[in-house]
Design goal:
Layout (H helix, E strand, L loop, with lengths): L1 E5 L8 H18 L5 H8 L17 H10 L7 H22 L1 H22 L11 H14 L4 E8 L2 E8 H19 L11 H18 L6
Antiparallel strand pairs: 1-2, 2-3
Helix pairs in contact: 1-4, 4-5, 4-6, 5-6, 5-8, 6-8, 7-8
Length: about 220
Amino acid sequence: MIPLRDTIPSRRVAWVTRGLLVANVAAFAVELRQGVRLESVIHRFGVVPTSWVVSSPSDFFDWPRLFLTLITSQFLHGGFLHLAANMLYLWIFADNVEDRLGHTRFLWLYLGSGVAAAVSQILVIPGSAVPMVGASGAIAGVLGAYLLMFPAARIITLVPLGPFLRTYELPAAMFLGIWFLIQWVQGLTSIGQVADVGGVAFWAHIGGFVSGMVLSAILRTRRYW
């Protein structure tokens, strides 16, 4: 399923959403200029679960950099399709969430969900040496918040049916419910796989989605932020 748009207009300009879009695209442009250094950049600024395992006291000295990667990893992507898919979801769902929460609280939701997503993946698959990068976890948090705030919204969705493409207007609760179910099933099947095999960090998506629901409920009660 590919979302094309929702049916809820925003009342104000989603400046933070637009800024995040620009920041992600700009970071990807910097990645493209790295050449042979790209792999080392991804390892340095991505989240590597095995790096969080403490094997000696000296490992604690590296934790300030590791905590920083919980943020920097959210702006790196593994390729153009990875970036495009994330930015499509961000563009469709984030403006309404930002409209409801306000600019500052939305930024807290986005970054906080991204951090929670990375931590979730680390806890479930701590033996992986593959760097986690991408805005997927943070955007999953936006999706969780959207589900709580706009469950009756309609999502215009492109659905491939064999060789044909059809568009359907699905309730947000159905679209996001199916999305979460797919992440959950794929996450369960990923447990026990070889740690160093790359792929989608499904548990980051699950953790981000749930944290987005929790954070949105908390932030909506803090009117002074």
